[in-house]
Amino acid sequence: MRGRARWRAGLVAVLFWVALPAGAADMVNGQKVYAQHCRVCHGDRGVPVMPQAPAFSRGERLMQPDLMLLSSIRAGRNAMPGFMGLLSDREILDVISFLRVLQ
Ligand code: HEC
Question: How many Å lie between the centroid of ligand 1 and the Cα of residue 29?
């Protein structure tokens, strides 16, 4: 039993080591970025303030992969300004991970 538990702990450590640098967005940072740059239009908890803005509280527009959302946020879309140069891709991915828990 002890051997198996140790083996499992080792496996978990390796998985973390492999997954962290690639994935693992920082949702706490995402929340900060959201409050600073997105809340004015998309509203607290994703209930939009601006009529044309999608409601993340209802999961609107979130059925797209992260990289598609990243490119819309970078480039901007209609009434939404682009955030390229203002936010890094890392920060945008952090905020996307936060959008996904607003539902
Ligand atoms: C000036 C108001 C405004 C701000 C600030 C703003 N948005 Fe938007 N956002 C919009 C509007 C309006 C749309 C709908 C655009 C359209 O498709 O017509 C939108 C659309 C989106 C979409 C859907 C894009 C798609 O591909 O369908 C995402 C995701 C999004 N915003 C995320 C964000 C994030 C993250 C931030 C902060 C970094 C942000 N927005 C800041 C107004 C804003």
Answer: 18
User: Looking at the predicted structure, is the pLDDT value of residue 74 above 60?
Assistant: yes
> Residue 20 domain-assigned?
no
Q: What is the pLDDT of residue 51?
A: 93
User: Residue 82 domain-assigned?
Assistant: yes
| Closest by CA position to 92, among listed 19, 18, 17, 37 | 37
How close is the Cα of 24 to the center of ligand 1, in Å?
23
pTM: 0.84
Q: Maximum CA pair distance of the chain? A: 59
Distance 58 CA to ligand 1 centre (A): 14
Q: Is the CB of 95 under 6 A from ligand 1?
A: yes
